[in-house]
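<discrete_fold_record>
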Amino acid sequence: MPLKVGVVGVNGIGKHHSECHANDPLAKLVAVCDVIKQRADETAEKHKVKAYYRLKDMLDAHPDLDIVDVATGGSENGGWHFEPAMEAMRAGKHVLVEKPISNDINEARQMVAYAQEKDLYLGCNLNHYFTEPAAKAKALMDSGKIGEQIFCLHRMGFVGGEFNYGGASTSPNVAGFPYFHVKAFLAHPFSIMRYFCGDIKDIQAFMGRPSFRKKADDVMVSINSIHVRFVNDSIGYLFSQRGDATMGLGGWWSIEVGGTKGTFCIENCVEKLTFTAAPGAPGAADPANLVLGKAPEPEVTNTGVTDFGLTFPSRIHAFLEDVTNKVPKHKLRASGRDALATLEYTFAAIESYEQGGILVRPAPLPQLRRDPSVA
């Protein structure tokens, strides 16, 4: 039987979420809610469901809801996730929340703790690794073809530059918030780095903004250079920017993970995976035949997919699948705890930047409770 879903916040991303639930066989979209009446009415009319303008009214009218999908916005894109997510969980509903889980670290910690206390599923839309290239890359790692991890390099940023800069944003959710980009953006790159390489134990960050933003009195800290060390002692580097430049190699999104037996690189998130086996690996180049500047021939997989938007139905389907199958809470994919990890790293990066690039250790994550009946 499909899970009954209500979506809260249907401006932009929330419309995508509503569409995904409406088209997924594991879900039955029954209601949408938004404080702006027109938004709620238009989305409800499109999907032939009920519209509400307060979450309480939606919960009262549909006590049999299984899931509340929280796609509200607020300051820094995460400023209004806490209240609806907590209200839904108090009503006993599983929750999927848009990223970042919150723009306030203490609120995020409370959300994760409360979901655990209530024994509810709390997931987050960390959709960047619900892709074919990511699945193939993870399979390479699980099969031992990467070996001991040595490095992780991740770059992510909108295509842009000074010619298409439109000035400081006047949106009330963005204007005047120096860390809007950092909080709204870094959840994705940190989530994919952690997905492949595990928890991060040390962070050092340098950040800034280009001169054209400074001249426009744009306070957004839009350029982020972050050096990390993972718990497994491999090292990583993250570069992000918000349309301040146009990146070449790897496109707008790339991640490269290298180990003692091989290296993979994903380009443009959904499009391309390249695997290069280390010299001497089975079927790889003979080390004796390699000279300086010559690399082994890579294996390249082009998926034929170019639409990044397809990550939304893939990720949302995974949440619906996990809830339907009643997977143990600690096995939930892209969980609230996973989202909290990305926010802990984000706040550690901000602290490092504000302290002149000092080394910062992120706050520890809450202990992962495991179902004792599950091996």
In short: The chain has two domains: 3-128+311-334, 129-305. The chain has a mean pLDDT of 95.
